[in-house]
Amino acid sequence: MKSLLFSTTLIAFSLFIAACGGGATGTSMKTIAEKKVNDNLTVSIMNADGKLKNGEQDITLKFTDGSGNPVEIEAAALNFNMPAMGSMAEMNDAATLTTTGTPGEFNGKVSLQMAGEWQAQISYEGKESGKTSISTTAY
Ligand SMILES: [Cu+2]
Q1: Among 8, 40, 58, 78, which is least packed, fewest CB within 10 Å?
Q2: Per-residue pLDDT at 18
Q3: pLDDT band at 22 (very low <50, low <70, confident <90, very high)
Q4: Residues lying with their CB under 5 A of ligand 1, a single-atom ion
Q5: How many independent structural domains does the chain possess?
Q6: Is residue 14 part of a domain?
Q7: 114 CA to middle of ligand 1, Å?
Q8: What are phi and psi of 87, to 5 degrees?
Q9: Ligand 1 centroid – CA 115 distance (Å)
């Protein structure tokens, strides 16, 4: 009887893992760009293949400490900015972010208007609060 209960629990647990494995989160994420803000905070922009592209895409924003552990950030915003170039006006493409089950990890979507160099402007509030920007390139 005890072993049957154990098996049932194990199956339920496996299903839970399977259900969570299909999303954008997970260990298979690759880093697009990251910045060490201070000894206690590194900000990483990630996605499935580690490449930012022109157009609509999924994106993950992650806050970790010097040891790679999650940092408790309750709210974050991510905007991609391209300064005016010649006759082309300045562009701003904000990402929509939502919290995940992991502290300091946000999933979202962004639609970039063109390939080229974008400044990822990030603001965050929580255990650490502030603003930073990371240079990225969309292909
Ligand atoms: Cu541009």
Answers
A1: 8
A2: 43
A3: very low
A4: 82, 114
A5: 1
A6: no
A7: 6
A8: -85, -5
A9: 8
Phi, psi angle pair for 19, to nearest 5° = -65, -35
CA 83 to ligand 1 centroid distance, Å? 7
19 has pLDDT over 50 = no
Alpha carbons 52 and 60: distance in angstroms, whole number: 11
CA 90–ligand 1 middle distance (angstroms): 7
43 CA to centre of ligand 1 in angstroms: 24
**Which residue is it, tokens 């160099």?**
117
Compute the distance from residue 85 Cα to the ligand 1 centre, in Å.
Answer: 7
* Residue 45 within a domain: yes
Q: What is the CATH number of the domain that holds 111?
A: 2.60.40
Q: What pLDDT, on the 0 to 100 scale, is given for residue 24?
A: 47
pLDDT in tens, 78-103: 999 999 989 999 999 999 999 999 99
Up-side HSE of residue 100: CA atoms within 13 Å toward CB?
A: 19
